[in-house]
Amino acid sequence: MRKIHCNLKWFLFLTLFSFTPPLLAAPPYPLAAVIDQVQTKLVKLYGAGGVRGLEPYQSGILISSEGHILTAFSSVLDTDDLSAVLWDGRKFTAALLGADPRLEVALLKIDGKDLPCFDPSRAATAAPGTPILALSNLFNVAAGDEPASVQHGIVSAVADLQARRGVFETPFRGPVYVLDVATNNPGAAGGALVDCRGELLAMLGKELRNAQNNTWLNYALPMAELRPSIEAIRSGKIVVRREDDPRKKPQRPLCLEALGLTLVPDVVERTPPYVDAVRPGSPAAQAGLRPDDLVILLGDRLITSCRTLRADLEYIDSADPIRLTVLRGQDLIDVELRADEAR
Amino acid sequence: MTSTPRDRGPGVKSRVYRTPAIAITERWNLYHEYSGHPLVKYMQFRYILILLFASAMTLPASAAPDAAVLEIEARRVATIDRIKPAVLAIFDASGRGGGSGVVISPDGFALSNFHVAAPCGPAMKCGMADGKVYDAVVVGLDPTGDVALLKLFGRDDFPAATLGDSDALQLGDEVFALGNPFLLATDLQPTVTCGIVSGLRRYQYPAGTFLEYTDCIQTDASINPGNSGGPLFDADGRLVGINGRASFEKRGRVNVGAAYAISINQIKNFLGQLRSGRIVDHASLGATAAGAEGGAVAVTDILETSDAFRRGLRYDDEIVRLAGREITTANGLKNVLGILPAGWRVPLSYRRDGRRFDVLVRLPRLHGKEELLKAARAKPPETPMPLPPPDRKPKDRKTPPDQSKPPIPVPKKASALKPPAPMPPVVKQHYEEKRGFANYYFNRSEQQRLWRAWNGSCNLAGQNGVWTLAGLLGDGVTYQLELADDQITLKLPSQTYQWIPRDNLAEGLTPRDGLLAAIYLWRRLAVEGFSRFGGVYYLGTAPLPGHEGLVDVLVGSYKGVEGHFYFDPQGGQLLALEMFPEENDDPYEIRFSEYRDVDGRKLPGRLEALRGDVPLSTLTVSEYRFGKPRQEDAGKGGGK
Hints:
Chain A is an alpha+beta fold. Chain A has helices at about 1-20, 30-40, 225-235, 255-260, 285, 305-315; strands at about 40-45, 55-60, 70, 85, 90-95, 95-100, 105-110, 130-135, 150-160, 175-180, 190-195, 200-205, 210, 215, 220, 240, 260-265, 275-280, 295-300, 300, 320-330, 330-335. Chain B is of the alpha+beta class. Chain B starts with 12 loop residues before the first helix and ends in a 14-residue tail after the last strand. The chains are: A alpha+beta, B alpha+beta.
């Protein structure tokens, strides 16, 4: 019954909106219809966390009818027990397909069919002054089939995060939509920024604090920036190691020792792959790797733990060069290195 | 640079626009296709406003503003002008600390938060937009729902807000929050912030142990410390909520785009109870329930002493509806329960093995009496709530401790160094301390109101002679009922039955005794009046099955039983009486109806008795006779 009602409203809105002079669009107050329609494309994500300051939940956006979910690449995804709750309360197990650490964006997949979704290839763009709605499950105030929170505001600026290099703790340097409303709260990352027709403009980013004055940035990553990463992940260019890896293992696989790298002790299932030590004179040292670097990518493979790094190295011949992407502070650094032939 | 939004009109085109506005008009062209959208209009207008105020450059512009934008602006300005006078800046008796509030009746009743009013004590000062400060007294408190009812003095024509319907709100609706954030209103003019409805029917876990926000309105209008207790208005200026809570976290105690208002529909349920001067409690079900497979909400535990249990609800039954609302989630059940006062009797539908049961269930109180009083005395926290231990890992429920208990915006309390200000005389006249009450003065005056209305219609005060009622029973048998102080005699064609009140009326009751004992209470209350009946207090308003709207309820204890007396709020007639022999047992109920005029007295022509789901008897009264009153008592009684 409710659904019919919503559809009717939406239809009415579209009809009035498209074919009548603008003023006539006001009476049925279409904002509610726009919001209703966007709600169906949002998901509530639940994963790792729960300790103070690390919320175990965030938001996501459905970008394919078969269940691809766009979200922020964060510690929430750092679990095998990731679930996605749709607008109607249906709960799915979600798998991480891949992520691009440079934009802190990730793609998940649930086993869905005929789901309402945004089309990322035809996302709209915004300029300063564009009125926006931000939908997300900020503070996790909504559960089950309860609608996500809606905020309104405008795009205050389109600016490079790089412009304030070092101030914000993020590896992303590109342009973002800066918003005049407090959107980027715990749980809001991965939420949708839409225009007043409900067209997807951008994805809400993770919380960003200005380290110098303790203020927080409200921003969203434009779809145009995210699109190459989404395509790369969907086409399998950036992937997470899977249990049923079809590749063949070489006879003499590469190992960390041969590179001169020691990782931090692997104490939990998903120990972040931080470099603990670099042997002087080793290939790793020559490539400039340092203790406390966090390994994020091996080639195009997403590295989520010490274990996945070791496992992925087993598929690389010790004679082949590798490319590692590490996070040092807030900078992403690519290095090429090859195991020592002498060994 | 005299331009303000109101200067812009048809005649002042060339002075209006500044350079940046030209850029804006280009952007307007960009969004031309959306330009009819109210949000666009509002946003564009807002953007222009910012630029107008911020820019120092002046250059004539080429285009006039969209008439529709100006119209929306003018309407909003007019609405705010209209609603602003009812908004309060609340301070404690010494004129410091405080929060916000809103007047809801011309005689000065006003709403605020419990957590604003409670630290002030019984007396407070309320500043209004007319620049004056009025004395006010606390009337009723709802520590669980975070609501306080106040009464202002000094006028009988206070500007009052119109109550709206919060159930009619939709996500995206424009709302205004008015109040005194950061206690900025040194000139007593309220601050206005504007936002949209971000969420509806939100459930916010109890902050600390008490203040539970159920079924509340979430908004992105900026709500900050000091806004607490202030009104949330819809676009037409109707009061839809009382702002009281916000999600604060690492950004400090300022708005982060998520604030919560108690829905006005919840407050409407409690208003009658708050006017009783009591510290009111919320309802529970006497059962817990959780989401089960397939979206059902199933009973996980139930108290055998609860009315729900007596009405047949059992473990694993699926709760379908409560109080007229569909239940689809466990939070949904909490939302419905949370907006109902303790003791209300509401429809419950549940399903077992595919069969649906529709019953009426009395809702027990959520807290123990002592627990509630303690909470009402306790000072609400001044700082953000301490975070609970971090080891509680939420699953798919919204339990994360950090944000599920957003701290309440509490303004700084008045300095402890300053001695409490003496109570102003007008407050003193309207304040009476009594255990269990926020202000017993108002309970007493409500009792007086009820008594005047009831006795005015039936005029039975002091009629302590023998009452004789005669007529037919439901099965057509004639009866005669003689009611006296020391006995009741029921004469039937076949037998005569006598009932003599014992020291404890609850002892050894048969159903017939129970019915006669209840009738005895009716006579006693009418003859002796509220003051001499026994322990009596006005409970507030509650629904009565078979009766539209809410009715007045008086509670009286006498000889070990508790009677609940339901009065018609319009005519003052007694509509029903419930006699509880024990707290956790079905009461004996009598419904009074078919009122008619008997020698200038309005008296019921029909008495229907029932207990639980079982009808006991129906008496039609064709004749009333009142024996000569004993002189020494005649004419007494009445309200206290």
